[in-house]
Amino acid sequence: MPIHILLPEVASQIAAGEVVERPASVVKELIENALDAGATRIHVTIAEAGRRLIEVADDGSGIPADELPLAVERHATSKLASADDLFRIATLGFRGEALASIGSVARLTITSRTADASAGARLRVEGGRTGALEPVGAPAGTLIRVEDLFYNVPARLKFLKSDTTERRAIDTLLTRYALAYPRIRFRLAEGSNVALQTPGDGDRRAILATLYGVETAKQLLEVEAAEDGAQITGFISPTSLTRSNRRDITFFINGRWIQDTALSAAVTQAYHTLLMVGRYPLTALFLDLEPASVDVNVHPAKAEVRFREPDRMFSFVQRSVRRALLAYAPVPQVAPTLWGSRREETGEVDPAWELGHSTVDRGQWTAGSETPSTVNGLPSTVNGLPEPFARMPLLRLIGQIGATYLVAEGPDGLYLIDQHAAHERVLFEKLLAQHEKKNIPSQVLLTPVTVTLPPAQATMLNSQVEFLQHLGFEVEPFGQNTFQVRSMPALFAGSDPAAALKALVEDFEEDETPLQAEIEDRIAGRVCKRLAVKAGKALSPDEQRALLADLEACDSPRTCPHGRPTMIHLSVDMLEKQFGRKGAI
Q1: Where would I find the H helices in 201-335?
Q2: CATH classification of 220-328, choosing from 1.10.3720.10, 3.40.50.1820, 3.40.50.300, 3.30.230.10?
Q3: 8-201: which CATH number, 3.40.50.720, 3.10.450.70, 3.30.565.10, 3.90.1150.10?
Q4: Neighbour count for residue 412 (Cβ, 10 Å)
Q5: 0.70 exceeded by the pTM?
Q6: Beta carbons within 10 angstroms of residue 324's beta carbon
Q7: Tens of pLDDT along 314-367?
Q8: Distant-in-sequence, close-in-space partners of 508: CB < 8 Å, separation ≥ 6
């Protein structure tokens, strides 16, 4: 094929691939234009997760009627005049590609009026082809409708994810911008369902309460620091409030939401040694820098930036977060009660424990006695392991160390059991056994528990309420992004219903399939991990014995559902070698 110039509409569709990846990309570009126009109110309406309709209305400065045809042309912008302006960008948009890109892959309608105009104007663009300009009556501001996204690019439409996933992406986007611009009234709706609505009164903590619930908002710690032309403000979570992934580590640079792995690493480094492995903080941090110190012209989507001094920014963020964290929540010390003055054990079993009674006959085994099954005086083996210890031997409880580990004696040495991992395994196998029998007993809560979720998680959970009933949960919508837990599996009686519900939705990645397609053990493992007894909880002797008995009855007692070992075995032979009883150490 000979070399030729691409048709304008083909070139536009190719360029649009860099800017418009999914419905959330369209929403992002349009609300950034509204913010640049000085809007104080931004309403977003979607249908079919943005595939059929995305409508963004604002009360900003509007677009003059004679400039509307130029606004939908490629590389047309009011925010740059020369190349030098690239090094002092103070607006969210500047490339002049958004409207042209959207118009090339959808049916775009723009209605706008400036405050000094007597009438507004309307312009339609379909597949990159611009229609005639029409005078219309309209309020001051701009209304943009994007219909049938990717109707003319079926390959792009095919690769969009499920409606639930695409809605979550839009919810997450609006959530972040609502935090960054607390003086703007944001509203997100799909039909009659309002997913997000903020008052626009400038109170970020009130917005956090709307998004994450009042209790979570109360716990967040405020960050405020300044250094050499850089300023950071925002909120971070205490060490007691964590997430299972980095999705809730949010950064805005000069009002622009960005994704930066180095800054995320700086935050996690600030929490070093304070969080469990695999747990991450919830943060919303806003950096204000000199425009010349950051390059935002890195990618058409404008989600990445480059700093002139990246090491200084990393250090600044890390020190600011660490300083705030330690100021509000000092590093915890080992409680002196663990070293000799522990409270007197009552022997009463905590009501939160729902451990069943083992049917294994523990007998009166003592060290040195013969095991139940022997061959020529030696234990018989199964798969190379002594039988009946192919799974786990009968253990004699010795006690608890550091309110975290149980110490027990077995016929072949000493065992250290992680109480959290062990309880995970016990709950996991019991829940799966009940699920296989299609009989998960539920316990009705005396008082229903109200749970508020971020819009993205609420959207996902709304579509899965019926499925949760199969797991023994009775959950009902209870207002905007709020749910009531009326009953939960009896196995978890005494546990926190809110924590159980959040465990079901917290760990989902963007590209994960809905709950129906999840393997049952992944769901069970997620809930059991959250509700299992935690490290640092002192257990009574009866609770310790009950946990050991239930662990012995498990089919796979050696690991928790996530593969972490529940116990460490110190054999008699190894102990004798360490003490020099069998030659040199």
Answers
A1: 204-212, 214-219, 261-270, 310-328
A2: 3.30.230.10
A3: 3.30.565.10
A4: 17
A5: no
A6: 20
A7: 999 999 999 998 887 544 443 433 333 333 444 444 444 443 333 334 333 343
A8: 460
